[in-house]
Amino acid sequence: MISKALVVNLKQAEKVRKILSKKNLIKKNLKIDKNKKFLYIPIEKIPKELSSYKIIKKEFSEFDKEVSSYKETISIPKKLKSSLPTSYDIIGNIIVVKLREELIDYKKEIGNSLLRTNKNIETVCLTKPVKGELRTRDIEIIAGKNYTKTTHKEYGLKLDVDVSKTYFTPRLATERKRVADLVKKDEIVVDMFAGVAPFSIMIAKFANPKIVIAIDKNKDASYFAKNNIRINNVLDKVEFINSDAKKVDEILLKKGLRADRIIMNLPFSSYSFFKYALRIMKNICMIHYYEIIKEEKISIRLNDLKKIAEKNDILLININTRKIKTYAPREFYIGIDITAKRKMPM
Q1: Which one of 60, 114, 152, 178 is CB 3.0 to 4.6 Å from 30, fit for a cystine?
Q2: Element spanning 56, H or E
Q3: Alpha-carbon distance 178 to 173, whole Å?
Q4: CATH homologous superfamily of 70-147
Q5: Residue 56, Cα to own-chain centre: how many angstroms?
Q6: Residue 218 CB: number of other CB atoms within 10 A?
Q7: What pTM was computed for the model?
C-alpha cells in the first residue's frame, strides 16, 4: 500500500518514532521500513515539530489483518452464527469448548477457526458436561494435535492437567486466590474434592497454613495432583490422599486433626457431602461451598444446608452467597462462604 512516509536518519529514528507514536500518527496497518541509512515511517500527517523532515510517498507492506474473533473466519450457515459459543476455556495450550446440538455437524470448522485465531493454542477439544464424583469429561479432539495433556499457569503456579481424565477450570483462578488470601496463619485446611490440587497449592503458596489435606477419589487426579504439589514446591504444606470424601472424618481422626477451613468444590454433588464436612470441623469453621444450581433454587438450597447443620447441632452463623459465573441460562456456578459454629464446643 502506498502512503506518505517520514524519512528519518537511523540515529534519530527512535526519538522521532516516539513523538509520532505519542500523537498516534503512525499508520498501524503498515510495516515501518528501513535501509542502511534511513527509517521510513508511514504516517497519517506530519506534526509541526517534525516539519523539517523529508516527506515522500512510498510502498509499504501491510500487517495481516487482526482477527478479533474466531467467528469472523468461520464458514457455517448464517442462521447458526448466533448459536456459536461466546466463551470457552483455555487450559494451557488447549481450548475446551461446548457446542449446542445444532452446531455439532460443524465442529471441525469451529475447531479449526479457534485454532487459527488463538496463536498459542495447539489443540481444540469438544466437551460434554462433567459427570460423576470423579469429575471426568467426554472429550473429543476437533482440531490440532492429538493430545489432551498440558501445563496451565495461573498466579505463577504450574499445574499439569489432562483434560480428558481430570476436571479443571481456569475460570476459578480469581476465586482460588481470593480463598487463599483469607487463610490465616497455622490454619488446618481440608480440600475435599481437590482434583489436580489448584486450590490446595494456591493456599500453600500464598498463605501460611499449618497443613492442607487434599482429597480426591479420581486416581488420575491423584497422579497429577501429587506431581503438581512437587513441582510447585509445597510438599511440606500439602498432603494429598487418594480417597472418597465420605471418609474424610476417618482420615482426619487418624491424624488427630480438625478443620479450620473446608473447601467443597464438587459443583453438582457438594450438597450430598455437606454432612461429612460438618463432622470434621473445629468449634468454628469456614466452609467454602460451591454448586451449580438454578437461580430459583438458591434460597431453597440455603435452607436445606441450615437444616443439615441443625441436625448436627451446628449453627450457620454467617452465610455469604455469590454468583461466580453463568453455567447455562438462569443456572449459575455459585460460591457460598459459610461460617459454622458448634452449639456444644468440643
Answers
A1: 60
A2: strand 54-59
A3: 9
A4: Met-10+ protein-like domains (3.30.300.110)
A5: 50
A6: 22
A7: 0.77
Q: Which of 65-74, 160-169, 230-239, 296-305 has the lowest mean pLDDT?
A: 65-74
DSSP assignments along 248-313, one per residue: HHHHHHHHT--EEEEEEE-TTTHHHHHHHHHHTEEEEEEEEEEEEEEGGGHHHHHHHHHHHHHHTT
Structurally, what CATH architecture does the domain formed by 2-59 represent? 2-Layer Sandwich (3.30)
Tell me what percent of the residues of the chain surpass a pLDDT of 70: 95
Residue 207 is given by DSSP the state: S
Closest CA to 156 of 204, 224, 109: 204
Q: Which three cell numbers stand for residue 329?
A: 441460562
Residue 296: count of CB within 10 angstroms of its CB: 9
CATH 3.40.50.150 is the classification of domain 172-342: yes
Helix axes 248-255 and 270-279, enclosed angle (nearest 10): 30
Residue type, 187: E
Query: Does the CA dihedral 165-166-171-173 come out positive or negative?
Result: negative
Highest mean pLDDT among 107-111, 256-260, 327-331: 256-260
Asked if residue 134 has pLDDT above 60, the reply is no
Domain ranges of the chain: 2-59, 70-147, 172-342
pLDDT at 26: 86
In the chain, what's the furthest Cα-to-Cα distance?
Answer: 87
pLDDT of 285 higher than 50: yes
pLDDT band at 33 (very low <50, low <70, confident <90, very high): confident
What type of residue is 59? E
Question: Residues 248-259: what's their mean pLDDT?
Answer: 94
